[in-house]
Write a structure and sequence with these properties.
Layout: H1 15-20, H2 41-47, H3 52-57, H4 59-73, E1 78-79, H5 86-90, E2 96-98, E3 102-104, H6 112-116, H7 123-126, H8 128-141, E4 147-152, H9 154-163, H10 171-179, H11 181-205, E5 209-214, H12 222-240, E6 246-250, H13 257-261, E7 267-269, H14 276-282, E8 288-293, H15 302-316, E9 321-325, H16 335-346
Parallel strand pairs: 1-4, 4-5, 5-6, 6-7, 7-8, 8-9
Antiparallel strand pairs: 2-3
Amino acid sequence: MWPETIKMKKYKNDLYLKALAGESVKRPPVWMMRQAGRYLPEFMAIREKYDFFTRCRTPELAAEITVQPIRRFHMDAAILFSDILVVPQAMNIPFEMKAGIGPFLPQPVRSKKDVDKVIIPDVKESLGYVFDAIKLTKEMLNDEVPLIGFAGSPWTILCYTVQGQGSKTFEKTKEFCFTRPEAAHTLLQKITDTTIAYLREKVKSGVDALQLFDSWGGMLAPDDYREFSWKYLVQIIDALKDEAPVVIFAKGCWYALEEMSDSNVSAIGVDWTLTPQTARKFTGNKITLQGNLDPSRLLSPPKVIKEIVHKMIDDFGKDQYIVNLGHGILPNIPLKNVQAFIDAVKEYHE
């Protein structure tokens, strides 16, 4: 639900904020995770000229990429183009983006000595380019739709930081946590403290809502999730709950939905591995949900996409619901299929 301490800003299209507030709407709002990115030809044109982190660190580029999908498809919310790894970069963890590999850290953090070298930075100084991008984006959006800011969960950032790159198992990360728990918790707390300061400054710069991505939360068993992920997410949520609505998306963490719904989050994103009815049951029908179309389903013919989307809305219910994918959009999705997804929501009526 919408935090009582926050005054809802006015936009030409405020469906997204109304859904977060739990208000009744004619249709649910729609946006897509990773909507500012690699499926768009206009994004690819920019990518040919500038490397990944240059795009993130140049406010004019980040703002332009953010508004590209809004300009083309008119989603109900924009999400700032950035990356979860800008936070560890500011903490003296020098991530690179390697072609064919993705996130890459030449010297992973795997000892107490390594953890001691990790700093809690002055976010205004080290991440000022993000806040400048927010201000530019707000100008370009011209009050059309709200803007979402985001960060990775401490656990997900730790996964990359210890493993050194992406992984199907994150076995080195788990080994670090289970054999050096004190060092792991010290690192998680440093990431948490930095993330709180970072997101707070994002709100001051103009974002209307915050989304926390726990992309690798589902790698953990339920008890381990509570110890190494959820308790740090709760710190972030509680620190920011009076400043902006907070949405949590934890892929593969269906077992934590009930606990999440009892926290101070305003909405919960769900992936495609559970039905809308199950998600509503686990969350007690008391909170806004977001999701949960399998991104690969956007490879279906447009007619089928529209049928699936209408059924998804019927199953979740049009209120307290934000239409989205169950994870980020894939790069090989045809533009006409994205249009069909957005149109299906806009054409929806009970």
